[in-house]
Amino acid sequence: MLKKLNHIAIVVPDIKKAKEAYVNNFGAKVSEPKSYPEHGVTVVFVELDNTKIELMEPYGENSPIQKFLEKNPNGGMHHICIEVANINKSLETLKNKNVTILGNGKPINGSHNKPILFLHPKEFCGTLIELEEE
Questions:
Q1: What contacts 106, CB < 8 A, 6 or more positions away?
Q2: One digit per residue, pLDDT tens: the chain, 134 residues?
Q3: Are strands 41-47 and 29-30 parallel, antiparallel or unpaired?
Q4: Would you say 41 and 57 are in contact if contact means Cβ atoms under 8 Å apart?
Q5: Cβ neighbours of 39 (radius 10 Å)
Q6: Active site annotation includes 130
Q7: SS3 category, 1
């Protein structure tokens, strides 16, 4: 079911400072900040040869990553995103195995405008997993 690693997501308290750190220290190619009010985040992507790093800052009062940042004021790794060939087939397979799907239990469009799902970390060694359709 799993294909390639799409990105590793890191919550940061200040997206502009985080972007500058990657650009100034590594000379990295980093996208411009983009806000997703429907997801409660502002993100940038650090481009690597084989994957990406997503830097996320809370957006709005009801951001789902705000509590993470309160517990980790300096930020930290939030989730990993792995691609799947067919998100709906993956969803059905995981439901049949009683894996906990977060949110409303259905795919939604993510920041790459592709369908995504989040899987509960308690079932994956404490790691929040995002699945994204290739």
A1: 91
A2: 999 999 999 999 999 999 999 999 999 999 999 999 999 999 999 999 999 999 999 999 889 999 999 999 999 999 999 999 999 999 999 999 999 999 999 999 988 889 999 999 999 999 999 999 99
A3: antiparallel
A4: yes
A5: 19
A6: yes
A7: coil
Identity (one letter) of the amino acid at 110? G
The CATH homologous superfamily of the domain defined by 2-133: 2,3-Dihydroxybiphenyl 1,2-Dioxygenase, domain 1 (3.10.180.10)
The residue whose two tokens read 């195995």 is 97
For residue 83, with 0-12 CB atoms within 10 Å meaning exposed, 13-18 middle and 19 or more buried, which class applies?
A: middle
Give the whole-angstrom CA distance, residue 83 versus residue 6.
6
Domain spans of the chain? Answer: 2-133
Catalytic residue among 20, 54, 92, 130: 130
Spatial CA neighbour of 134 closest among 44, 46, 2: 2
CB 12, CB 78: distance < 8 Å: no
This prediction's pTM: 0.93
